[in-house]
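Consider a concrete sample entry:
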Amino acid sequence: MITAESTILNPPISYDEQVQLVAEIREIRRAAPLFQPFAGGLGMSVRITNAGPWGWTADGLGYRYTDRHPEGQPWPRIPRLFLDVAERYGVDSSRIDCAHIVVYGPGAKLGKHQDRTEHDRSGDVFTVPLGDPCQRIVWDPTTDTETRAVLYSGYPVLLSGPSRAAFHSVRRVLAPDPMFHPSPLDRPGRIALSLRQGAGPR
């Protein structure tokens, strides 16, 4: 059975390395500024950007991957640190061709969805949460069973094998937990760094 808890990996990424990941994300944002994706003609509550050969977007043409930012420039390269972290959790970094960055303000959320825009949907989706905790919901597509878990900064999530087809959502960003789970961000909110295999146009 696929549950929210079963997709969370241990041990967590150290706080110092989380700070390094955030610094790399900051450099990507300078080269490829955050922008608002649109779903069904409505702006989503998150902002996004990407690194790598391909980047995920949602606009008037639908959900898709492109090889450049909406402003026209190619996406910046994926930092080596991102790939090293993925490899440490058993993910084949040579197949990662998109680093998708999703920034949540305190009131942002992401609705129920599958990651199915990729050219090769057999590839892994490895996500590192950074910042404030959130409530994450996962639906097992074989049983339509829903489970919930609190996702803390630095605890990666892996959708691979049977869990690759799971529906998931971020219901809400929760209050910070600075004593037990300090945030590497300098403001409220969270970032989801999603490293994806098999991206590109379908």
Remarks:
- The mean pLDDT is 96.
- The radius of gyration is 16 Å.
- The chain is about 15% helix and 35% strand.
- The longest helix spans residues 15-31.
